[in-house]
């Protein structure tokens, strides 16, 4: 920050930048009173303004003070980075929010890697900043001028999208947020990583099981080759990420994939979506367990508390039995509780069966406009799924509304159903957990 300059002539400037660095508001005010133009000065090496320093250090009050003096929120440093980019790099969410409110441009590209603030938030795994930037992109003129989808999938100088960077760095929550916002799971890089890498190649390279899982459940292609002809499986093997390689092995069971998000998930009720998400994670975990069985790799990654919790509850199902009884038993699998209700017909089934009904092994780009799934009981189109209410009379077995119609309608279910029924046998405690969740306001 200019400390290297020994010339006495610059000392007010040095003092000013030191005060900014340590958010000494009084000293900053003093400098500004003496010389208001000092706000336009920059540090010697990076040409960072006080604005940049305040943003990267998360000094919100100071940042607001500078913004109050009508400084251009998109000042550039030596690398053409804006204060917003620096705040996104350092995960200073309050500064990110403040800068966006002040009209900072989220569409600026720096000159180091040709990246936007979205790339930086994704690369450094700052998911709250990422979410804030995406929300801003939806509500500002970016959506009109550029198109939201284009912004989410913008490439940096080496052809990497924010999803590529998040997958490479192993930031699962960023991967999930980006996918939820329309990031293309099949995008290929130009030069980043190995040329022609997909996000799955990069997750394999980084060795993140969480990211591999997330991408696979979004339909990432295990057979996609990069420009040197390697599939993600070989990338994981080469980097000695054995557990990832096991999941990526094209010979292992296909993962379950979310239904076409555009067509279907947007119409999902939030509670129902949470239940289905649980069921999907559950089914894929059980699949993983089978794949990894007999290998040297453990199923539960240490950073995944949920997975560990599941292990603990393995022999403890009885504890939850009474809660599960509050729901009717699913008439398709006769194994899980009915937690999802089809509207308008009101038929109920468990989350695992619903998922089997709506899931396709991998979205086929040529048939992306699939017709809506139909209710397995009455064959009417499913307009909407909601979380089923538990019975108010838990002790008494209710005669299922589905029961009489059930036997004739099973043949309509996809074959994936059978797999899910087996895989999801540990679902009861998950459903109990979910019902707890639903009770919250
Ligand atoms: Zn079921
Ligand atoms: Zn129905």
How are the SSEs placed, and which strands pair?
Blueprint lengths: L10 H11 L3 H10 L15 H8 L2 H8 L15 H7 L3 H9 L15 H7 L3 H13 L1 H5 L2 H5 L9 H8 L2 H9 L18 H8 L2 H8 L15 H7 L3 H7 L21 H23 L12 H9 L4 H8 L14 E4 L4 E2 L1 H8 L25 E4 L15 H7 L6 H8 L3 H13 L2
Antiparallel strand pairs: 1-2, 1-3
Helix pairs in contact: 1-2, 1-3, 3-4, 3-5, 4-6, 5-6, 5-7, 6-8, 7-8, 7-11, 11-12, 11-13, 12-14, 13-14, 13-15, 15-16, 17-20, 17-23, 19-23, 20-22
One zinc ion (ZN) binds next to loops.
What this model shows, in words?
The structure is a single chain. With 441 residues, the chain is mostly helical. It has 23 helices and three strands. The protein has a three-stranded antiparallel sheet with strand order 2-1-3. A hairpin with a 4-residue loop joins strand 1 (340-343) and strand 2 (348-349). The longest helix has 23 residues, at 270-292. The model is unreliable at 1-7, 298-324, 361-365 and 392-441 (pLDDT under 50).
Largest beta-sheet details: 3 strands, antiparallel
Mean pLDDT equals 77
**Unreliable residue runs:** 1-7, 298-324, 361-365, 392-441
Report the count of strand segments.
3
The distinct ligands, each listed once, are:
zinc ion
Give the class from helix and strand content and strand pairing.
mainly alpha
What order do the helices and strands follow? HHHHHHHHHHHHHHHHHHHEEHEHHH
* Distance from first to last alpha carbon: 50 Å
What's the arrangement of strands in the largest beta sheet?
Answer: 2-1-3
Helicity range of the residues?
40-55%
Number of H- or I-type helical stretches: 23
Shape: elongated
Residue share in β-strands: under 5%
Radius of gyration from the alpha-carbon trace, in angstroms: 26 Å
Enzyme class: transferase
Biased composition (Polar residues): 431-441
Catalytic activity: S-ubiquitinyl-[E2 ubiquitin-conjugating enzyme]-L-cysteine + [acceptor protein]-L-lysine = [E2 ubiquitin-conjugating enzyme]-L-cysteine + N(6)-ubiquitinyl-[acceptor protein]-L-lysine
Region (Disordered): 389-408, 421-441
């Amino acid at each position: 920050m200019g400390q290297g300059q020994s010339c006495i002539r610059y000392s007010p400037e040095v003092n000013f930048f030191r005060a900014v660095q340590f958010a000494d508001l009084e000293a900053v005010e003093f400098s500004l009173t003496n010389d208001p133009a000092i706000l336009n000065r920059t540090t010697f090496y990076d040409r960072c303004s006080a604005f940049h320093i305040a943003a990267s250090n998360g000094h919100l009050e100071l940042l607001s003070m500078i913004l109050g003096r009508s400084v251009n929120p998109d000042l550039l440093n030596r690398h053409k980075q804006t204060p917003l980019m620096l705040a996104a790099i350092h995960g200073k969410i309050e500064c990110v929010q403040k800068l966006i409110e002040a009209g900072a441009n989220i569409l600026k590209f720096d000159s180091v890697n040709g990246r936007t603030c979205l790339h930086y938030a994704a690369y450094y795994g700052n998911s709250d900043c990422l979410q804030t930037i995406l929300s801003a992109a939806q509500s500002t003129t970016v959506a009109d001028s550029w198109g939201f989808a284009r912004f989410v999938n913008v490439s940096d100088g080496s052809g990497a999208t924010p999803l590529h960077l998040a997958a490479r760095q192993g930031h699962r929550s960023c991967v999930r947020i980006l996918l939820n916002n329309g990031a293309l799971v099949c995008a290929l890089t130009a030069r980043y990583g190995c040329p022609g890498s997909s996000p799955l190649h990069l997750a394999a390279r980084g060795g993140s099981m969480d990211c591999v899982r997330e991408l696979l459940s979004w339909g990432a292609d295990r057979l996609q080759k990069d420009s040197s002809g390697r599939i993600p499986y070989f990338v994981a093997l080469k980097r000695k990420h054995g557990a990832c390689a096991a999941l990526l092995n094209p010979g292992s069971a296909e993962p379950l994939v979310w239904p076409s998000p555009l067509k279907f998930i947007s119409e999902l009720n939030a509670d129902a979506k949470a239940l289905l998400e649980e069921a999907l994670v559950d089914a894929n975990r059980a699949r993983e367990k089978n794949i990894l069985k007999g290998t040297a790799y453990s199923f539960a990654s240490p950073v995944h508390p949920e997975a560990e919790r599941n292990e603990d509850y393995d022999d403890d199902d009885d504890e939850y039995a009474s809660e599960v009884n509050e729901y009717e038993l699913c008439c398709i699998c006769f194994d899980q509780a009915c937690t999802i209700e089809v509207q308008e017909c009101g038929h109920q089934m468990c989350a695992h069966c619903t998922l089997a009904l709506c899931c396709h092994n991998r979205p086929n780009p040529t048939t992306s406009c699939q017709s809506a799934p139909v209710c397995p009981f009455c064959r009417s189109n499913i307009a909407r799924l909601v979380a089923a209410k538990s019975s108010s009379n838990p002790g008494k077995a209710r005669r299922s509304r589905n029961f009489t119609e059930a036997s004739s309608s099973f043949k309509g279910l996809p074959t994936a159903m059978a797999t899910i029924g087996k895989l999801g046998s540990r679902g009861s405690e998950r459903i109990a957990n979910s019902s707890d969740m639903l009770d919250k306001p």
